[in-house]
Design goal:
By secondary structure, the chain is an all-alpha fold. Helix content is 84%, strand content 0%. Among the domains are: 71 residues, no CATH class; 97 residues.
């Protein structure tokens, strides 16, 4: 392109901009009128300008409110992790590289959070527990070295717990799937008996209120909409759950789809088998509870009494309190109740699902 062509191109752009500006409606002060008319027009123009400014301000405020509303819709933990990752992205990414298998754990737990964000959240939770444990040690009048040890143990506990937390969530989801699986299979079997297709039956389960299993069926439907086959979606569901009951169900469904068979009868039979297994587990659980109840009574009633008696006896022999009153109150008010709560949680987690 020559110099003349470049010059002509510049003139065309300037001319087009001039035409664009000339075509805009511009409010002008009319000439040839009295001063009162001009002042009136000028006042009207000021009012219009102020209205435009108010509209722009309201628009900006509405955009800010909408952005804030979308931000508040995110969980607090996710926003906290994003803030931490924003300021310490380098060390967090270096640390997250050592977390092997974390991506797969987050995927199986259906936690929609990146690995770096989860590591950032892990650090925040660990620091909070560390400060809390240190504060408890200080309030209990323990030596500062012991309080620092409590803080270190709190950090280690928080870090290890957050590392295995996705696996805990995954196991909880698997337990809920196994609990709702008989009802979902009966639902599908009744629809198949009525002549509904397998895909439509899965969509019906996805839209029903079966908790985690409805979520997983919805994910399978999405996979099929993106090009995956029914067999691939079922196999992916089986690998994600890692459950014997789910694996058995998927294998039976794939076999019936491939080689033919009455899938409705198969699903009915599987539902009955799973319900029977649940009843047997419930009987075993009740038998275990009868033995655990004595241990629970010992921890909540006998053990605190023996502890107080032992402290009193030792204090009488030593002719002084062998444990500060604040520490004794802390143990009686928090340690033993926490032990009881932990026992209840263990009993609850052992409940068949």
């Amino acid at each position: 392109m020559g110099v003349a062509d470049v010059f002509l191109s510049i003139l065309e752009k300037i001319g087009g901009k001039t035409v664009e500006v000339a075509e805009r409606p511009i409010s002008r002060i009319p000439s040839g009128r009295s001063i009162q008319d001009r002042l009136r027009v000028l006042k009207q123009m000021q009012i219009e300008v102020e209205k435009e400014k108010i509209k722009e301000s309201e628009k900006e405020m509405a955009e800010i409110i909408e952005w804030r509303r979308q931000e508040l819709q995110k969980p607090f933990s996710e926003r906290l992790a994003e803030g931490m990752l924003k300021h310490f992205s380098g060390p967090i990414r270096t640390l997250s590289a050592s977390f092997r298998g974390l991506d797969y754990d987050l995927y199986r737990a259906n936690m929609k959070m990146s690995r770096d964000s989860y590591v950032a959240l892990t650090i925040v939770v660990s620091v909070f527990l560390s400060l809390f444990a240190f504060a408890v040690g200080v309030l209990a009048y323990f030596p500062y070295t012991l309080s620092l040890l409590f803080g270190l143990l709190g950090f280690m506990f928080g870090f290890m717990y957050m590392r295995i937390y996705p696996k805990i969530v995954w196991k909880t989801r698997v337990a809920e799937v196994e609990r709702e699986l008989p009802y979902a299979l009966r639902h599908m079997a009744s629809l198949l008996s009525a002549g509904v297709g397998i895909t439509e039956a899965m969509v019906s389960v996805a839209t029903a209120n079966y908790g985690v299993i409805s979520e997983e069926f919805e994910l399978m439907i999405r996979d099929m909409h993106t090009g995956a086959s029914l067999e691939e979606a079922l196999t992916k569901f089986e690998e994600k759950m890692g459950s014997e009951s789910v694996s058995r169900t998927v294998k039976q469904m794939i076999r019936a789809i491939k080689f033919g068979g009455n899938l409705a009868d198969i699903l009915y039979k599987l539902a009955e088998d799973f319900a029977f297994d649940y009843r047997m587990k419930l009987v075993e659980y009740v038998q275990k509870i009868n033995g655990i109840s004595f241990v629970y009574m010992f921890l909540t009633i006998v053990m605190p009494t023996m502890f107080v008696v032992g402290i009193l006896a030792g204090s009488i022999m030593a002719r002084s309190l062998i444990l500060p009153v604040e520490s004794l109150a802390l143990i009686l008010l928090f340690a033993f109740p926490a032990l009881s709560v932990l026992m209840v949680i263990m009993i609850k987690r052992g409940e068949p699902r």
